[in-house]
Fold this sequence. Notes:
By secondary structure, the chain is of the alpha+beta class. A hairpin with a 4-residue loop joins strand 7 (122-128) and strand 8. It has helices at 2-24, 70-79; strands spanning 29-33, 39-43, 47-53, 80-90, 93-101, 112-119, 122-128, 133-138. An 8-stranded antiparallel barrel has the order 1-2-3-4-5-6-7-8. Mean pLDDT is 84; it is low at 1-22.
Amino acid sequence: MKFVMTLLAVLVAAATLSGQSSAGNPLAGAWKVDGPQPGLYIFTRGHYSFARIQGDKPLPDYPSNDKATEADKAAVFDALYLNTGTYTVTDNMLATKAMVAKSKFAIGGAGNQYEFTITGNALVLTQKPSGAVLKLTRLE
């Protein structure tokens, strides 16, 4: 009985803590990019990972990297957006700082700023100052 009570206490504490962390961070979780191309944005407590295919053209279809042409590889490189690092949230502003990115200039630079709104399971990121808008749907 003591084991069951201890286990129950641990489960209640874990549920409480996980609820607190997501309540304090509205971005925490996984988000699917809305649009014709796939993309996934993940926010943990202090880190993020962004990966998406940009544009409206499909990636080149080739059987392996060994058989891809240089043009195929360049097209894939140009289409991919990959960026991961740390972030902070202040009110409805998201500030990212890349630790790993597809391009070196993005690492260690000033980072990116986004204004965000969340309505239900929908997240809208508006990059500052460019005004580029990205719409996402919460997966978890």
